[in-house]
Amino acid sequence: INSNAAPVSFQNVTKVYGKDVVAVDTINLDIEAGKLVTLLGPSGCGKTTTLRLIAGLEMATQGKITIGGRDVTQLPATDRDVSMVFQSYALFPHMSVLENVSYGLNFSGFNKSEISDRAAAGLDLVGLRGYGERLPSELSGGQQQRVAVARALVLEPQVLLFDEPLSNLDAKLRRQVREEIREIQQNLGLTVVY
What we know:
Helix content is 31%, strand content 21%. The chain has helices at 47-55, 97-102, 112-125, 141-153, 171-188, and strands at 8-17, 21-31, 36-37, 62-67, 70-71, 82-85, 159-162, 192-193. Strand 1 (8-17) and strand 2 (21-31) form a beta hairpin.
């Protein structure tokens, strides 16, 4: 298991929007450190809300959320060591691939050469060595998704979240990238919720 990988626990977590829209209803969930857990269910059943609760992008209405044994229920996203890969990739179009991957590292106290090394290693990890100078628009959808994965991976978060990251890809590419994500997760011993 990666030394950063942390378990995630939900204890009776509920998320209500407004007065009566229950998005997540009294969920109890234990995810072991270094494991990949997939949330399955029909559209609108609360999968994305659950991920957003882990990330701190939404706050629980009731219950307790811990990451690595630490109560994070009231902590904002900025105070949680969690990275999220979105369906939309969310790449910066005006930045090179390498700049996109190193973006989060610029705020983490590493020096320039360390940032560059980590970003290059991240691109290696997702099979995009040599693509660093390109713009996202010069890449295929599958390659853009890998850049988004690399950007999240280089931060070495306690928990890595994937919110339907492959739905924009065709079936064959989706299967391939899913297998690549699984391989990276196993090789690095990351806690992943997909």
